[in-house]
Amino acid sequence: MSSIRFFSQDISLAFKNISKSTIDKIEKEQKFDSLLNVHKNNKNFDLLFVDTYELAKWYRGQGNLLKAIELNKRNMAQMDSVNYENITLYRRNLYSLGFYERRNQDLESALKTFKRLLKYKSPDKYAIQGSFQMAEIYFVIGQYHNSKEHYELSKTIANSLERNEYYVRSAIGIGQACKRINTAKSLKYGIKVLSNATAFVDSVNSDDNTNNDVRKRFVHTLYNQLGNIYIDRFDYDFTNGKINLEKALLIATELNDSTLLGKTYNDYGVLYLKDQSLEAKFYFEKALSYSPDPLMVSIINRNLSIHHLFFKNYDKALEHAQKTLAILVGEDISNIKSLPSKSGLSESKVKFQLISALIDKAHIWTELAEKNPNDKSYINEALKTFELADFLTEKARLESKEFKSKLFWRKTAAEIYVNATKVSFLSDNIEKAFYFIEKSKALLLLEDVSLKTSRNNSEIPENIIKQESKLKNQIAELERLAVSSNTDSIRRLLLGTKDKYNQFINALDIKYRFYYKTTKPADIIDLKTFTSNILDNNTAYIEYILDDKDGFGIIITKENTQLFKIKNFDQLKVNAQHYRQLIEQPFLDKVAIEQLNTVSYALYESLFPEQIRSLIEGKKLTILADYYLQNIPFESFQTSKTSKNYLIFQNEISYAYSLSFLNENNKLTRVNTNNLVGFAPVDFSNKLTSLPNTQLELNLIKDLFPSTVFLNKNATKNRFFHETNNAKIIHIASHADANDSISPWIAFYNSKVGLKDLYNFNNTPDLVVLSACNTSLGELNKGEGVMSLSRSFFNTGSHSVLPTLWEVNDKTTVQLLKSFYQNIQLGQNKSLALHNAKLDYLKTCAPNQSLPYFWASFVLIGDEGHLEIDNGIPNIYYYLFALVFLIIVFLILKRKK
Asked: Fewer CB within 10 Å, N- or C-terminus of the chain?
């Protein structure tokens, strides 16, 4: 017979007696129902609501979650019907409903219920628990940035209410999410949060007041998580990782908790696995001896697979990889070559673990393929496994609502694409390699522009357009506030507005909804289609794909396509970083100049191997860089060991994010009629230093052709958003900071414009010129690219962008841009105009100002086509001039006769 614990003295005596009685279950249920009816008929609502709440708990104890959920919903509806004023009881019921829904695996309903707990006048324990439960659910379904945001909220509220245990548990959750996001920035932040929490625990657990101590199992998890993050750091901190795991192991041993012991021994194994030690196997096997749950068993088997692969024991590696997959999908895939079905993968709640396991298995097949080049079966297995991992990653990404969550899955996919390209290289499968390289580049930007193209060609009602824009702007503003204000009210408002936006989109009629929500991956242009679109033999495209282990390139011309491996790859990253440091310095001594030339030539040799040099000779190049190569101007490379023999002397060069994006961006309708709208604040209201040369810069352009120019106090943020809608060219000469840890910005007289402002802006200029520092730099997101100001202008609908790669020299900028616009006026396309402007500079500059710092910072990204500039002379005058010219020719010819 079951009994329940009573949490309230308000429970009726009759309910207590029924619960304690020894009658059978069916009779007990009948008595409970009768009791609730008596309360209802007597309008004794306090007892009705308390007893119904307790009865739901009783059914949960009986294992009947559906009945518990039904009773909770009925209780909430009854409370609503009488406007019940006991807020605490109401929120207690609300929390229980969400808790039961989560236990019943109805995560979507649970999220909706817990969200209601975030609406309150004063924070309470249910606000903490609601946000904490949401964070856990978001983590389970792979929305790690969302999870982190909700852990942050529960931590903030717990701190304000002095709920020490929830404060620590929330900190652990933040660390867990940061570890899964796995960027240098997130790991650093995770260590900071967890370290602060350990100091907090030491303080509260050592004072005389034991009422608010943090239980040891949570202290164990805190140290365990901190040790994990140290292990996962990009610089791998063995010492601090081990120190924290030792503390966790002491607590787990003291508690004699097999679950905690199994987890800690697994993490010890990871510590030694990262240290490439045979000792790792001992700890993994010890972890298995504690009979962990199935998910933990799959994690340990995956770690054993990685361990055996490192020591080249391929059979064991495959065996453990297959065990991992079998446990995660619950399918019979005992055959080593078997893979889970797509349907089984699609419904899985552990997509991240499955993707990781598939990638690990594909790595084993790849190594076997390298060791056995004559056995093509290994290549086929590797490719098949990578393709399945790609399918599941795309599935997870499309299920994500938040942009940051989508970026996480793009980062996860990056590992798939570079390794799948390697397999394609081994099998000389150029078409597959092209697909994976294209898939690795700016896919989210491609999808955004595809949606924009669809919206521009649709007839969406004005009220939908305005409401969607309004909500996005509210989110952008709240995200700014959330950075500067760590209050629960701002965080709640932000999360609520994001939820409101998603509800708004989901509530749209299906014929409008798909204009705002990506439901399938963007179409990647295939190699055959792309090469058929190349118009002449004087153009070549070179795409690169790389990680920290391997790098490949593909060169595409109208007549030839070649896949190649990057030479001297082990030195590439060091050389690129060193070159970047040197190239952004205006003045170098003789030794530094020699270093610059040596590193520059080394990069040229690596990225333009001998086999492709004849294919690019004299051609116009479009470069699609990757990873750390994205902030380097290729035209500045030395093509020989001789000083100042730059690549620009033999090739015109522009850049692109992806060929698929180039193709899609050309579909946007652009019918701009104004030549140029320019902005130069010169002086700033927010104490930024004055830029007097920017006024000269814009006036020189205005002298070349009719332009609308806003200077000084007229160069405002508001004017930028309202005066540029019909501009062929937008030119901004100002301050910018693209290394801002929060969000890159560009300054107007009265305010800054950031990435989020631009993402919510709809504009389609033919060219945006960003005459400011570092406007092509930003946070690098592997698999998607740099989140820069230039990229954000493409998101608005720009055809091409002319940004900078470092702090530009004012005098050189004026000279280069004047020449560029003169070339545009002469009818040269955007790429050729910039190319010739740089060459003209190099012909006329002083010897000490010929370093790439002075001329290579500006790069053209995107479309390279012509701009039709109106010189201010009405068309009728062109016709009159032509007529006069013909008359003169006619008279001359007549006289000769």
From this structure: C
